[in-house]
Design brief:
317 residues; alpha/beta; Rossmann fold; binds N~2~-(3-carboxypropanoyl)-L-ornithine; binds phosphoric acid mono(formamide)ester; N-succinylornithine carbamoyltransferase; arginine biosynthesis
Length: 317
């Protein structure tokens, strides 16, 4: 594997899922693979899970790890080419990426959607610029449109907990007062498409995702109907894609409660976290036996380890 920006960079998804499960069983099997190599983690946005799990996975592989909060620890970075840099950003990505590429063998980046200009967000400029100028593998720690390390952890979690060969997986929109990106939902759809699952997506009208990500996913606007017989309920809020970045409703009837979970086939609840309790999901679900959120977050370490291992193997050939 060269870069890890989306599912398109994965040649064998099943192999990657198995590799994650193997890393969980034996975390230090490849502890010398990253010896004398460095990974730089660059955060343009906040993180708990991604930051710690990637750091931990890299350490398990023997990598040296540098973590930086861009714009706080470092200079603000200008991404556009040919502009007069008379604003708040003191350094251009052309120099910053090239320099980071000299210090690091792998660069991992988190940079969320700004939710103002859809074309700008969906162009993924930060990632394209680093890919162009750093000349080392780039790993996506959540971009404007995707969160593939999360999606891989989700696939691992579904493989671990499924009791049917072809489970029903329902992605449901949840209410939130803030405008959040579509990245996690897009990515989850993208990764569910090749999986052996019945995949259903439910959200209020106006929250349709980019069809490119929806793929074979079946959209049902009635949440109760969508939840019927579900084995996994994957909750997430996202702002509108069509009315870009807008919050069109906060309808509390979309919150996941025990009554909603009772519509499923003894279904399990998943969410990437962080989440607002009793806004998106009721305490009774999160604190009960149906919730997989902690297991799911723990699997972030193994999804990161599987991906970094593939990239290191690619570096060493
Ligand atoms: N990395 C996991 C999700 C990150 C982000 N959530 C958030 O920003 C939640 C913020 C809040 O609830 O205030 C998102 O939806 O893409
Ligand atoms: N799920 C996830 O990516 O969490 P963080 O935003 O805390 O990294």
């Amino acid at each position: 594997m060269k870069h890890f920006l989306s599912l398109a960079d994965v040649s064998d998804l099943n192999h990657l899922i198995i590799s994650g499960i193997e890393a969980k069983r034996n975390p230090f099997a490849d502890e010398t693979l990253g010896k004398h190599k460095t990974i730089g983690l660059m955060f343009f946005n906040s993180s708990l899970r991604t930051r710690i799990s990637t750091q931990k996975a890299a350490a398990n592989l023997g990598l040296n790890v540098i973590v930086m909060n861009v714009g706080q620890d470092s200079w603000g970075l200008e991404m556009e080419e040919g502009v007069i840099m008379n604003g708040t950003k003191a350094e251009h990505v052309k120099e910053a990426a090239a320099i980071m590429g000299r210090y690091c063998n792998i660069i991992a980046i988190r940079s969320f959607a700004e939710l103002e200009d859809r074309d700008k967000d969906y162009a993924e400029t930060v990632f394209q610029q680093f890919k162009k100028y750093a000349e080392v593998p780039i790993v996506n720690l959540e971009s404007a449109t995707r969160h593939p390390l999360q999606s891989l952890a989700d696939c691992i979690t579904i493989e671990e907990f499924k009791i049917k060969e072809r489970p029903k997986v329902v992605l449901t929109w949840l209410p939130h007062f803030k405008a959040l990106p579509q990245a996690v939902a897009n990515s989850f759809c993208e990764w569910m498409n090749p999986m052996n699952v019945e995949f259903v997506i439910t959200h209020p009208e106006g929250y349709d995702l980019d069809p490119k990500f929806v793929g074979k996913g079946q959209v049902i606007y009635d949440q109760d109907k969508a939840l019927e017989g579900a084995d996994f309920v994957y909750g997430k809020n996202w702002s509108s894609y069509t009315h870009y970045g807008q919050v069109l409703t906060q309808d509390p009837s979309w919150m996941i409660t025990e009554a909603k979970m009772a519509l499923t086939d003894n279904g399990k609840f998943m969410h990437c976290l962080p989440l607002r309790r009793n806004m998106k999901v009721a305490d009774e679900v999160l604190d009960g036996p149906r919730s997989l959120v902690i297991e799911q977050a723990a699997n972030r370490e193994w999804s990161a380890q599987a991906v970094l291992k593939e990239i290191l193997l690619g570096l060493n050939v």
